[in-house]
Write a structure and sequence with these properties.
- The protein has a single domain, classed as Rossmann fold.
- Strand 2, helix 1 and strand 3 form a beta-alpha-beta unit.
- It is α/β, with parallel strands linked by helices and about 220 residues long.
- The protein has seven helices and seven strands; from the N terminus they run E-E-H-E-H-H-E-H-E-H-E-H-E-H.
- Helix 1 packs across helix 7.
Length: about 220
């Protein structure tokens, strides 16, 4: 397990909530600034980068989703252990007192990972799944057949309205699966929303992430 890099953006407010964000290319600073720009209430952000993306964020092994893509080698459980046992305690030493609550958020495969974590640990109570890779083979079935370690207070889902418009047979299921999963939680009485944004998967990732964080903080 190679060293991960975490950046802590602490709130000056004691006891402010903390959001853990796994990032593809170290977008923590930009997301934190975007969250301030849209007027989020005080919160701390811990952004983790230098991830082995297709391993650390994947709940189990799965073939590549793209023609020339890398296969997924399910290392999410190992990475989550590192997050809970080492990264969280280290990051929270930099906060002003213990946080009111912890949330976990992510974009793309990190959105899938964020949702997966609630089935493996009880440390996160709010989840932001932005353009989450919920097309991931077997994931919807996993959600429908497993109980979270703790009932989440709220879950935010979003997607770009063009994300399902693809010939890729795996990726084109993303909107249908996201809507089914969101409805599943809604029917359990969990506070949840599904937001459709203009654009494809790569449009406005920073802004979409900040919007999800804002929603979680305002519940």
């Amino acid at each position: 397990m190679e060293k991960k890099n975490e950046s802590v953006f602490p709130a000056t407010f004691p006891g402010a909530p903390v959001i853990y964000l796994n990032t593809y290319s170290n977008e923590g600073q930009k997301v934190y600034e975007a969250a301030q720009a849209v007027g989020c209430p005080p919160f701390s952000l811990v952004a983790v980068s230098d991830l082995d993306w297709n391993r650390d964020m994947a709940p189990w092994d799965s073939p590549a989703a793209f023609k020339n893509g890398e296969p997924f080698t399910g290392g999410a459980d190992d990475y989550l252990r590192l997050l809970v046992e080492e990264i969280i305690p280290r990051a929270e030493k930099e906060l002003v007192g213990p946080p009111a609550w912890r949330g976990i958020a992510g974009y793309s495969l990190a959105g899938l990972f964020a949702l997966y974590t609630i089935y493996q640990t009880d440390v996160f109570s709010r989840v932001g799944c932005m353009s989450g890779s919920l097309w991931f083979p077997g994931f919807k079935e996993y959600v429908f057949s497993h109980e979270p370690k703790r009932r989440p207070d709220c879950i935010y889902f979003s997607l770009g309205d063009k994300e399902a418009k693809t010939r890729n047979p795996v990726l084109k299921t993303v909107q249908e699966k996201t809507e089914e999963i969101q409805t599943f939680y809604q029917n359990k009485g969990i506070d949840t929303v599904f937001q459709l944004n203009p654009g494809n998967h790569f449009a406005q990732g920073i802004e979409r992430t900040a919007a999800g964080i804002q929603w979680l903080l305002n519940r």
